[in-house]
C-alpha cells in the first residue's frame, strides 16, 4: 500500500512537471493536485488499516467469545451446604485425570485422612501430581472416582463460594492484576478493609517491601505484576488469601520464589497460624529443608500414588531405607546411613555433632576458582529504574564473569536480580553504564544477533518461551529432529514432547525450557530461578549438565534462591543488595563466611569445622571421623 502511494505521488509529480514546462499547468495547480492525491491516498490507507484491524478483531473476538461461552463443569448441587464444620480433610479411594479419555489417571486410589488443625507436607518428584492433589481439596476440579471430603462432607455438596471462602489456595504460579497493591490484596475478599489488608501483610512479613514504595499500598501494579519480583508477587498472593480468614490453607510451592530468610519467616508464620488459630495447612514442596521441622506429618507421592504417610521421623527413615535420601533435609542427608536417629534440623544436627565430640577437624583446601580465562560478561556502573521518577533498582552495579565459569547471583526478593539479568539480555535498558560480552559492547549487537550468536535466557516464567500446541513443535523450531531427540534424552523429557506446555508441572516446564536453551547452542547462558519446581534428583541432573557445559567452555550466570544448588555447582557467588553486589567470593568461602545467606550444612558445622558447605562435604568429613582418621 505504501509503495502504491509513493509511486502515485512520483507519477503525478513527473507528469505535472512536464505540463508546467509546456505551460499547460501552473505550479499552484500541481501543488493542489499533489495535496488532493495525498488526502485520497491517506484515506485509502486508513480504510486498509481498518480492514486489517477488523480481521484481527474478528479472530480475537472468537477467542474471547469462546472463553465467555465456556460452561464450567463445576456446579452447585440442588441443595448446597453453606457451612464448613471444621478443617478436616479426607480422600476416599480418589482417582483423577484431566482427560477422561486418558489411559491411566494421574492420581490413583488415594486414601488419606487429615485432622483439623494439622500441618501436612506433601513431597514427591517432579510431575508426581502434588499440585493436582491440592487442587482437588478446593474443588478446582472434580474427582474422576471416589470423593474428597472437607469438614466431613463431600466437596461437591458445598456451595462453591462457601467452600472457597474457607479453603484458600496459593497457587504455584501467581498472577497480579492491574491496579494497586491494595486492590490485589482484596482479590480474596473484596469487602476487606484497608486495616485488615495491612494486618494480613504484617502477619506475612510483606509490609516491609510494600512500605518501601513511595505510594505504599496504593502503588500501581502493572498487568501481570511485571514491576515487582516473583517473590513479592508470592507474598502479595499469600496476604490476599490470609485476608479471607480461611479454615484450610493450601500452598503449592510457597517458598519457591522466596529468598532463604523470607522463606524461613513464612514457614514460621504458617506455624503460628496453625498453632494459634487452628488453621489446617497443606504445603506441597520440592524443598524439604524446613518442611520436616514444621509439619505434623509428611505425605510422599510417587507416580500419582500415596507411597508413605507418617511423621517426619518415620518418613525420614522410610526415605533412607528406600534410597530416597534426595527428599531429606540437608542436615538429615549429612547423617544418613551414619546413624539411626536422623537429626531433621540444624539444632538437632549440632547436638549430634556435640555428642560425637567433633572438634578441630582441619579445614579442607579450597580450590581457587578465579580463572585466567578472559571475561565473557562485564557490567560496569549499571543504573536502572522502571520509570523516570521511580526509585533506582540498580545503583552502580558492577559484575564480571569469566569464560567457562558458573556464577551464582544471590539476594533478597526485590533486590534487582531479575532486573540485572534483563539488562544483560538487552530486554531492559539502563540509563547509565554498559554491558560487554567478550569485549564487545552489547549495543553492537543489532537485529536480534545477541540471541542468535551469543546468549540464551531462561526467564523466571519459562512457560512464556512456548507458543506451540506441543513441546515437540516448539523445540523443532530451534533444531532438527535428531538434535531435538538428543537434547530430549539428555534432559529426560522424551515423555513430555507431545504434551501441551501449559499442561506441564512447574518442574517439567523448567526442564523443557532448558532443553530449548541447549538447542540454541549459546556461548553465555543466563538462568533466572532455573531449579524452581524441581525435585532434588532433577536438580542433580541439571547440575551435571551445567558442569558439562562449563567443560565445553560455556559461561553460566544463574540467579537462584536455592543456596544448596549454588554451593554445589557454582564456582563463585555474589550477593546483590540495594542495587549492587556487596559480597563476592568462591562458593566455599562465600557460604562459610555468611551467616544469613548460607546453606544448612554451613550453619550445621559452624564452630565444629569449616569449609563444608554442602551435605556431601559434611558426610565426607563425618565419615573420616567415624573411621577414626582424626583423634577427638
Strand content: 15-25%
Total strands: 22
Helix % is 25-40%
Overall geometry comes to globular
Question: How many distinct helices?
Answer: 23
- The helix-and-strand class reads alpha/beta
User: Order of strands across the biggest sheet?
Assistant: 6-9-10-3-11-12
Radius of gyration: 29 Å
Amino-to-carboxy terminus distance: 87 Å
Could you report the average pLDDT, rounded to the nearest whole number? 85
Largest sheet: 6 strands, mixed
List low-confidence stretches: none
Q: Can you characterise this structure?
A:
Helix content is 40%, strand content 19%. The radius of gyration is 29 Å and the shape is globular. The chain is an alpha/beta fold and 632 residues long. Strands 6-9-10-3-11-12 form a six-stranded mixed sheet, with helices on both faces. The protein has a six-stranded mixed sheet with strand order 18-19-20-15-21-22, sandwiched between helices.
SSE topology sketch:
Elements: H1 2-21, H2 27-69, E1 89-96, E2 107-114, E3 119-124, H3 130-137, E4 145-150, E5 153-154, H4 160-166, E6 167-170, E7 179-180, H5 181-185, H6 194-203, H7 207-211, E8 220-221, H8 230-242, E9 248-252, H9 260-277, E10 280-284, H10 291-294, E11 297-302, E12 305-310, H11 312-321, H12 330-335, H13 346-356, E13 375-384, E14 394-402, E15 406-411, H14 417-424, E16 432-437, E17 440-441, H15 449-453, E18 455-458, H16 471-476, H17 481-491, H18 506-519, E19 524-528, H19 536-551, E20 555-559, H20 563-569, E21 572-577, E22 580-586, H21 587-593, H22 600-605, H23 615-626
Parallel strand pairs: 3-10, 3-11, 6-9, 9-10, 15-20, 15-21, 18-19, 19-20
Antiparallel strand pairs: 1-2, 1-4, 4-5, 7-8, 11-12, 13-14, 13-16, 16-17, 21-22
Helix pairs in contact: 1-2, 6-8, 17-18
Amino acid at each position: 500500500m505504501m509503495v502504491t502511494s509513493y509511486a502515485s505521488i512520483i507519477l503525478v509529480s513527473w507528469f505535472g512537471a512536464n505540463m508546467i514546462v509546456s505551460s499547460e499547468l501552473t505550479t499552484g495547480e500541481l501543488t493542489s493536485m499533489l495535496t488532493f492525491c495525498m488526502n485520497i491516498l491517506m484515506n485509502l490507507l486508513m480504510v486498509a488499516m481498518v480492514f486489517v484491524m477488523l480481521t484481527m478483531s474478528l479472530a480475537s473476538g472468537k477467542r474471547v467469545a469462546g472463553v465467555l461461552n465456556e460452561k464450567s463443569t463445576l456446579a452447585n448441587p440442588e441443595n448446597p451446604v453453606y457451612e464448613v464444620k471444621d478443617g478436616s480433610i479426607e480422600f476416599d479411594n480418589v482417582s483423577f485425570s484431566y482427560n477422561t479419555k486418558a489411559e491411566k489417571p494421574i492420581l490413583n486410589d488415594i486414601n488419606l485422612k487429615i485432622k483439623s488443625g494439622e500441618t501436612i507436607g506433601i513431597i514427591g518428584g517432579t510431575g508426581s501430581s502434588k499440585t493436582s492433589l491440592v487442587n482437588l481439596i478446593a474443588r478446582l476440579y472434580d474427582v474422576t472416582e471416589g470423593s474428597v471430603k472437607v469438614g466431613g462432607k463431600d466437596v461437591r455438596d458445598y456451595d462453591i463460594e462457601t467452600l472457597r471462602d474457607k479453603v484458600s489456595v496459593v497457587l504455584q504460579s501467581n498472577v497480579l492484576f492491574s491496579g494497586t497493591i491494595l486492590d490485589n490484596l482484596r482479590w480474596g475478599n473484596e469487602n476487606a478493609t484497608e486495616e485488615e489488608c495491612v494486618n494480613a501483610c504484617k502477619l506475612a512479613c510483606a509490609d516491609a517491601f510494600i512500605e518501601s514504595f513511595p505510594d505504599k499500598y496504593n502503588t500501581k501494579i502493572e498487568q501481570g505484576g511485571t514491576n515487582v519480583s516473583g517473590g513479592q508477587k508470592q507474598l502479595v498472593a499469600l496476604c490476599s488469601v490470609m485476608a479471607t480468614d480461611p479454615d484450610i490453607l493450601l500452598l503449592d510451592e510457597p517458598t519457591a520464589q522466596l529468598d532463604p530468610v523470607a522463606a524461613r519467616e513464612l514457614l514460621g508464620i504458617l506455624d503460628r497460624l496453625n498453632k494459634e488459630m487452628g488453621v489446617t495447612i497443606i504445603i506441597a514442596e520440592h524443598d524439604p529443608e524446613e518442611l520436616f521441622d514444621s509439619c505434623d506429618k509428611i505425605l510422599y507421592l510417587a507416580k500419582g500414588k500415596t507411597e508413605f504417610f507418617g511423621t517426619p521421623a518415620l518418613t525420614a527413615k522410610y526415605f533412607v531405607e528406600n534410597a530416597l535420601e534426595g527428599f531429606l533435609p540437608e542436615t538429615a542427608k549429612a547423617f544418613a546411613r551414619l546413624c539411626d536417629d536422623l537429626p531433621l534440623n540444624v539444632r538437632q544436627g549440632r547436638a549430634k555433632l556435640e555428642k560425637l565430640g567433633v572438634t578441630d577437624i582441619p579445614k579442607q583446601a579450597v580450590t581457587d576458582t578465579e580463572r585466567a580465562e578472559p571475561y565473557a560478561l562485564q557490567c560496569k556502573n549499571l543504573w536502572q529504574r522502571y520509570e523516570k521518577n521511580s526509585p533506582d533498582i540498580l545503583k552502580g552495579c558492577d559484575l564480571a564473569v569469566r569464560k567457562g565459569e558458573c556464577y551464582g547471583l544471590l539476594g533478597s526478593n526485590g533486590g534487582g536480580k531479575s532486573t540485572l539479568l534483563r539488562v544483560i539480555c538487552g530486554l531492559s535498558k539502563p540509563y547509565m553504564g554498559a554491558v560487554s560480552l567478550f569485549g564487545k559492547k552489547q549495543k553492537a549487537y543489532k537485529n536480534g544477533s545477541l540471541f542468535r550468536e551469543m546468549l540464551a535466557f531462561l526467564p523466571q516464567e519459562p512457560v512464556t518461551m512456548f507458543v506451540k500446541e506441543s513441546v515437540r513443535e516448539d523445540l523443532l523450531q530451534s533444531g532438527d529432529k535428531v538434535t531435538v531427540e538428543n537434547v530430549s534424552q539428555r534432559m529426560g523429557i522424551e515423555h513430555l514432547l507431545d504434551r501441551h506446555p501449559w499442561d506441564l508441572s512447574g518442574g517439567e516446564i523448567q526442564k523443557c525450557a532448558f532443553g530449548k536453551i541447549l538447542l540454541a547452542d549459546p556461548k553465555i547462558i543466563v538462568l533466572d530461578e532455573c531449579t524452581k519446581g524441581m525435585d532434588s534428583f532433577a536438580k542433580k541432573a541439571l547440575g551435571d549438565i551445567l558442569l558439562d557445559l562449563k567443560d565445553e567452555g560455556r559461561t553460566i550466570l544463574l540467579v537462584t534462591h536455592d543456596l544448596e544448588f549454588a554451593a554445589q555447582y557454582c564456582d563463585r557467588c555474589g550477593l546483590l543488595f540495594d542495587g549492587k553486589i556487596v559480597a563476592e567470593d568462591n562458593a566455599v568461602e562465600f557460604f562459610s563466611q555468611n551467616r544469613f545467606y548460607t546453606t544448612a550444612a554451613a550453619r550445621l558445622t559452624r564452630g565444629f569445622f569449616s569449609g563444608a558447605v554442602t551435605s556431601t562435604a559434611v558426610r565426607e568429613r563425618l565419615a573420616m571421623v567415624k573411621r577414626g582418621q582424626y583423634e577427638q
